[in-house]
Write a structure and sequence with these properties.
Blueprint lengths: L31 E3 L8 H5 L9 E8 L4 H10 L14 H8 L3 H13 L3 E6 L4 E7 H8 L3 E3 L6 E3 L4 E3 L6 E5 L6 E4 L2 E2 L23 H7 L3 H5 L9 E6 L5 H10 L11 E5 L11 H14 L4 E6 L9 H11 L9 E4 L1 E4 L3 H16 L3 E5 L8 E4 L4 E4 L15 E7 L17 E2 L1 E2 L3 E2 L3 E7 L13 E4 L2 E4 L7 E6 L5 E8 L1 H19 L7 H9 L8 E2 L28 E2 L1 H7 L4
Parallel strand pairs: 11-13, 11-14, 12-13, 14-16, 16-19, 19-25
Antiparallel strand pairs: 1-7, 2-4, 2-8, 3-4, 5-6, 9-15, 10-27, 17-18, 19-20, 21-22, 23-24, 26-27, 28-29
Helix pairs in contact: 8-9, 9-12, 10-11
Amino acid sequence: MGRFGTLRHFILMTGLALIVAAARPAAAGDPVTILAGNHPDEAAEIVGAAAASASRPLAMYLTMALRNGAELTRLLADQQNPASSQYHRWLTPDEFTSRFGPTDGDLARVARWLRERGFTVTSADASTREVSFTAAVAQAQNVFAVKIAATADGRLYSNTSDPAVPAELAPLIESINGLDNLLHSAPGVHRVPKRDSSAHSPDAIADSIGPAFGPADIYTFYDETPLLNDGIDGSGTGCIAVVEDSNIDEDAANAFNSQFSLPALTIGANFDVVLVDKSDPGQTGDEDETMVDVNYSHAVAPGSSIRIYLGDENNTKSSAIVDAIHAAVREKKKNSRCSAISISFSFCGASKGFYQTQNGFFKQAASQGQSVFVAAGDNGAAGLQFNEEEDACVPATTPNVSELAASPHVTAIGGTEFTPDYDVDGNDVSFVPESVWNDDGYAAGGGGESKVFNKPKFQKGLIPKDKKRDVPDISFGASPKSPGFFFGGRNGSDEPAVECCEGGTSIGAPAWAGISQLISQQEGAWVGNLNTRIYQLGVENDGATTGIRDVTSGNNSFNGVTGFSAGPGYDKASGWGTVDMGLFVLAYPGL
């Protein structure tokens, strides 16, 4: 049977599962290897010393490591090198799996070992690189040689050390998931109260609220108008995938599009929703995030299609956001995969192995020509940590970055703030200098040094004293206060309307996804990971031809954590700065 045969999606029926009465732990007998980075950093502080219930059932899955790592590294470099025969020759998901995914034999070896140790294996899939299995806590502790501790009420649990597996299998296994339930996601959008105004501009004022930024203000401020006048609007480039865990309010989205003269979003034409967990969560507490992501990807690339990859937190084995990311990368329908992916969520309670696994999927996206943009977060240099009492992500008290945004294979988007130059009607009339977004005590643009990823080649020499990946790469307007951004919502009478004001690095991630669509249209081809070219343009930046606007003021200190100050060139507060779209989109292809 071939590697794309039954092993790809096999399900082992419970009646056929091999149950071993006395399972032998991994740490006994044959040599073992500890899978470093496979327990959450917060585990010891959160769960204390109480033991988890031995009979508690666990649904676990392990992610197989990518094969042929050196070959993949060369391919990703060649795909962005105009002198290479592989330049912009993108893979399909099946081609990626065939070359770099696990073999049928390796999947079978790992699944067999799990069954022999008493686990019930429920699936193994080469395209997801996952082997799923179940057992009770006692079994998992015994086999993986870990202690699984819990809070006194049993609500939270986690392994307090890294799991052990046979040394001969360790190179095949990247991470083991399901030994804890601390993983949480957090959106990067922030709302401030409405602003009342008596002005009447259709763009700066909506439903008598504002002034704030709408699409036309962005076109002026970031110099997109010349591109739109030339028909460069993202048409013919595929679609933008927005990763969400709440469905959209379609009537509110239509109100936004109508107010600002954007094309209507029509299901089956230029808009779609993919239920990645086979169920619809409806409109959840993260609805504002969905609205902003759709509003601003559509505003910047009005000719592009938008697709929501929608996970359901009530029907996931790990995280609705993770499910949505993986589905956007692995989409196989012909002519259906999106060329850009926007992610406006951060995680807390995750292990280093978790982020390495997501990095593997971002490598796949890059090899397929997909441009991925991740919001750098809204908690300045503090970042996020998991809080046991709130069972949620909260601002940390030590330096952290969004490690999802720190993958070298995504473009991390920071935030800026500025006081717009409005005319008498409340319309933005020109660019003004931006500073690092820092609404003191409320929110600030994420940035700093990764604790997971080493410094990629495109960042070499910029900040010689650190050895890790730095974020952000580049920025966009973010403050909900200055200038503040309109979004589609509901008014006090629960009617669809344009509301004010939202902000966050969630504005920049979908906006940059839109910018990548403009570049793709200009080039006539998908462009993949933008980082190599952004850094080339940043290094040679003369301010007049590259389209990169240096941000040289402000800092991202937050929640008592001293952050980083902006200055000339690259910095950990704003990256390279922001963008003049009219120049940047034209300069980008000039490799």
